[in-house]
Amino acid sequence: MCAVCGCHDVPTFDAKPAMLPFANVLAQPAKPLFQNDKHNYHYGKGAAEVSVPGMSQARLIEVETAILSKNDALAAGNRRVLTALRVLALNLVSSPGSGKTTLLCRTIEALGDAPLAVIEGDQQTSNDADRIRATGAKAIQINTGKGCHLDAQMVGHAMDDLRPRPNSYLFIENVGNLVCPAGFDLGEDAKVAILSVTEGEDKPLKYPDIFTAAKLAILTKIDLAPHCDADLDAYDANLRRVNPKIDILRLSSRTGEGMAGWLDWLKTHLAAKA
Amino acid sequence: MHEMSLVEGIRAIVEDQSHTHAFTRVTRLRLEIGRFAGVEKQALEFAWDEVMRGCVAEGAKLEIIVLPGQAMCFDCARMIEINDRFDPCPLCGGGKLLPQGGNEMRIKDMEVL
User: Fold this and answer.
1) CATH number reported for the structural domain that contains residue A259 in this entry
2) Which residue has the higher pLDDT, B36 or A270?
3) Is the confidence at residue A26, as pLDDT, over 60?
């Protein structure tokens, strides 16, 4: 008698099903799920060398590949080029209308002769790149069409055309969107999240991913704070709640208040690339 | 989030694998998605049918395995596991948590013909 289950015969897959208590199970078409020799069942000898309940092993392929692996590989390529050239690349992310382009225009004017280039991402129009070019800076507009974010391939193509100069700044203004750009590495040194004081103090809590991914948050339009009862300390507290390590700056592109701190941040981080 | 782009990424990987492993059809595919990855299951499933049409994974069953979220607590400096992005630290009750894991978006395996 079988010592495992008490049946009258050793269960083998070529035994007549009717003789065995497992008849209903063994009568099913044999699947190459495992191999048996008497009471030793080997689940690791199939084509996949691993068993997963409910899956047919001979046809199981382990992939273990990150979904964004192609983007990540292209981003790593961009990062190698930017590192070799000692270019500080910043990925500016925010909701539409936070003042990214205005801040960039003021920043370009304030940086004076410092070499820099700009990549502008929008769904449609070249309005933003036109504004940047009006300051005298090199800019490429990427229109994503239905796309909601820039990806590493788009940025790589733009870099081929822009040919950033050694020891320069590369500003990448992402599509206005607080959700998708968080997941797509472009090869940048840091994501800079821009948040205007009219957007609500709880915005970091409502869209935590982008603020968690950012190294720096810039609160813009602070000249409007008194007119819309904005609590700047509450912005800081909520930013630190989702990202305790985040740097925070407050400024107004319109009045120039706080711009010095932003320019210092830029110069310090560019120097760190050298 | 960007579920359409994600499924397009999956399609590209599946097509690469179909050349490497010489298969003509995917019947089932399992994804591992971290709790903080920001991926909406329903949106992913919607994009799945659209994007996979005409490729080896058309009609494949999609299974999503949710991986736990890990975070560093800045108050007690320990690694903890949390289910929700704004849960307090289960050890000290602190609220300053920096996610450390749970952003995974991986294809685990697939069943092919």
Assistant:
1) 3.40.50.300
2) A270
3) no
Question: Which domain, by its residues, includes B34?
Answer: 3-112
Instruction: Answer whether A59 sits within 8 Å of B17, measured CB to CB.
Output: no
Size of interface A-B (CB pairs under 8 A): 95
| The two structure tokens encoding residue A180 | 């998708």
Predicted model pTM: 0.79
**Closest Cα to residue A239, out of A220, A214, A264, A269?**
A214
Distance CA A93, CA A220 (A): 13
The CA distance from A84 to A166, in Å, is 8
The residue segments making up the domain with residue A173 are 69-273
**Cross-chain Cβ contact B98/A63 below 8 Å:** no
- Partnered with residue B73 across adjacent β-strands are B97
Given a cut of 60, whether residue A40 has pLDDT beyond it is yes
Angle (nearest 5°) at CA A247 between A245 and A253: 160
Contacts of B10 in chain A (CB under 8 A): 67
- CATH code at position B17: 3.30.2320.80
Give the chain A residue nearest B77 (alpha carbons).
A244
CA-based nearest residue to A197, from A155, A142, A254, A156? A254
Phi-psi region of A152 (alpha: psi -120 to 50; beta: other; left: phi over 0): alpha
- For residues A258 and A249, is the Cβ–Cβ distance under 8 A? yes
DSSP A66-103: ETTHHHHHHHHHHHHHHHHTT-EEEEEEE-TTSSHHHH
Whether residue A75 contacts residue A185, with contact meaning beta carbons closer than 8 Å, is answered with yes
Name A247's bridge partners.
A216
Number of domains forming the structure of chain A? 1
